[in-house]
Amino acid sequence: MCLVEKFVYFGNSLYSFLNSLYSFSIRLDRYSLHSFLGICLLLVQTEGLAETRIINGTCAADEWPWMAAIVYPNRPAIEGQYCGGALIHPSWILTAAHCTDGEDTNSIAILLGRNTLSDEGTGELIGIKNIVKHPDYDHDPENPAADLALLQLEKPYTQAAVLRVAEAYSDVTEVGKLATVIGWGQTSTKMRDSYADSLQQTAVPIVSNQVCNARRTYDGEVKDTMLCAGFAGGGTDACVGDSGGPFVMETDAGWQQIGIVSWGEGCARPYYYGVYTRVSSYQEFISEHVCEAQDTLPAPQVEVSINGQKATVSWNNVIGADGYQFYYAPYSDSISDVTFDNIHSLDIKNDTDFSAELSSGENFYVAAKAYRGNCYSDYSNIGMVIMP
Asked: Could you give the C-alpha distances from 287 to 211, 266, 322, 360, 375, in angstroms and in order?
């Protein structure tokens, strides 16, 4: 299907382009037919090469089982899809708040397990019983703040593992790293009806908010709770119809969602990067709303041992945990802002210890949490690493 879409897309572009050239050709009495055809060939080749890299890039593999389409249920999916989302709990979808503006639980539904929208024999359509928008969402049509919503499914979806969202204190959004945006949205900046049938993906580098807020780009409009990504020259980006979809990064602990497609100036334009809701800024809000009593895990208990310059923090195995989040922060005598302003965390999967070589005077507070999906235990006891 993806290959067919490319041929259809190129055919439509070529048809429109040649129509324009035909209108122009009647004014080319100075040129021979041979010269005119040569110009046509050169321009068509240039047009084709430019279009191959615009917007979403390539067809997605089947490695995104948690990808959700938000659809109008009274229409075929190929016509009714208008936003994306991600399964972050068997009963919850994470999307952009602006995707729910003007909608209610009866007007939209969630389609899971289908990569090609026109393939009506696959996937599962599930209704929504609750919409939770972040309380700080401001409904700004151009650059919305807190652009995040949670959609509760009428019944759990158990055919796929959930997508982990980046933890509040994690450092996975390093500038320059590539991350992947996924969706069924518009695939051309020149054709408004160019929504994809097959799920698309493209990889773009994370850009610092400082660069994104430069005068020639967004001139200060990007907040700390937003994340920018893309190339200075444009060319590949999320676009209309991709809103709400996940922006994901591959980490040592697997794929994690670091952003939600939110807003931008046009699509794939030079210096106008894609702007995403920074998921780590809202991780605690997400977990508080989607996790239920049966998702709660007991907190692990940490122990600290020091052997020479090697410090090891270990903890007990928690039954039912998918993995553990390890936390560390600079030591201060009375736990001051020096500590609270510099907390970091690492997802270390299902390991039950963490070791590091430290120098004398490198002192830290340490702790751990167990997690299942996006649901966390309380913090463990606080350990202290004091290097002599």
From this structure: 31, 32, 15, 38, 6
Q: Do 257 and 170 share a structural domain?
A: yes
Name the residue among 276, 279, 265 with its Cα closest to residue 205.
276
3-state SS, residue 293: helix
For residues 52-72, give the mean pLDDT: 75
Name the active-site residue from 91, 194, 243, 280: 243
- Look at residue 361 and give its three-state secondary structure: coil
46 inside domain: no
Handedness of CA 269, 271, 274, 277 (dihedral sign): negative
Nearest to 66 by CA among 256, 206, 325: 256
- Does the pLDDT at position 352 exceed 90? yes
Same domain as 157, residue 233: no
Joined together, the tokens standing for residue 199 give 């799920």
Number of domains in the chain: 3
Cβ neighbours of residue 336 closer than 8 Å, sequence gap 6 or more: none
Give the model's confidence band at 36: pLDDT under 50 very low, under 70 low, under 90 confident, else very high.
very low
Give the chain's end-to-end CA distance (angstroms, integer): 63
Catalytic residue among 89, 91, 134, 147: 147
Q: What is the pLDDT of residues 140-195, one digit of tens each?
A: 999 999 999 999 999 999 999 999 999 999 999 999 999 999 999 988 776 666 78
For position 275, which CATH number holds?
2.40.10.10
Q: Give pLDDT tens digits for 97-156.
A: 999 999 999 999 999 999 999 999 899 999 999 999 999 999 999 999 999 999 999 999
Residue 367 near residue 383, CB atoms below 8 Å: yes
* DSSP track, 113-131: S-SBTT-TTSSEEEEEEEE
Domain span at 186? 165-281
Closest to 347 in 3D by CA, of 228, 255, 227, 247: 255
- 289 given a catalytic annotation: no
Q: Which of 13, 89, 91, 98 is catalytic?
A: 98
pLDDT in tens, 296-343: 999 999 999 999 999 999 999 999 999 999 999 999 988 899 999 999
147 counts as catalytic: yes
